[in-house]
Amino acid sequence: MPIYEYCCQKCGHCFEVLQKVGEGGESLTCPRCGAAKPVKKVAACAVSHGSFSTGSCISKSGFS
Ligand SMILES: [Zn+2]
């Protein structure tokens, strides 16, 4: 199960979320301030490669 990192638009707190593939983050809330709709950051697989190839990472794991 992929891990996604989200950052809160209200307080700036970033947190990781385990999500099923294709599941959206619309229902997520910030664990610190409770604000809705945090912004998704780069995928965990791109981070583990130590590069910013976010596009190739997403094309491999998503859009099935
Ligand atoms: Zn917050």
Describe the protein in words:
This protein has 64 residues and is of the alpha+beta class. It has one domain. Helix content is 20%, strand content 23%. A hairpin with a 6-residue loop joins β1 and β2. It is globular, with a radius of gyration of 12 Å.
How would you summarize this macromolecular structure in one to three sentences?
The protein is an alpha+beta fold and 64 residues long. It has helices at 44-48, 54-61; strands at residues 3-7, 14-18, 39-43.
Give the secondary structure arrangement, pairings included.
Elements: E1 3-7, E2 14-18, E3 39-43, H1 44-48, H2 54-61
Antiparallel strand pairs: 1-2, 1-3
Structural class assignment:
alpha+beta
Order of helices and strands: EEEHH
Q: Quote the beta fraction.
A: 15-25%
Shape: globular
Average predicted confidence as pLDDT: 75
Number of domains: 1
- Would you identify the regions where 5 or more consecutive residues have pLDDT less than 50? 59-63
Q: Percent of residues in helical segments?
A: 10-25%
Ligand catalogue: zinc ion
- The number of strands is 3
How many angstroms does the end-to-end distance come to?
Answer: 15 Å
Strand order of the largest sheet: 2-1-3
Largest sheet: 3 strands, antiparallel
Can you count the helices? 2
Radius of gyration: 12 Å
Name the descriptors:
binds zinc ion, 64 residues, alpha+beta, globular, 20% helix, disordered C terminus, three-stranded antiparallel beta sheet
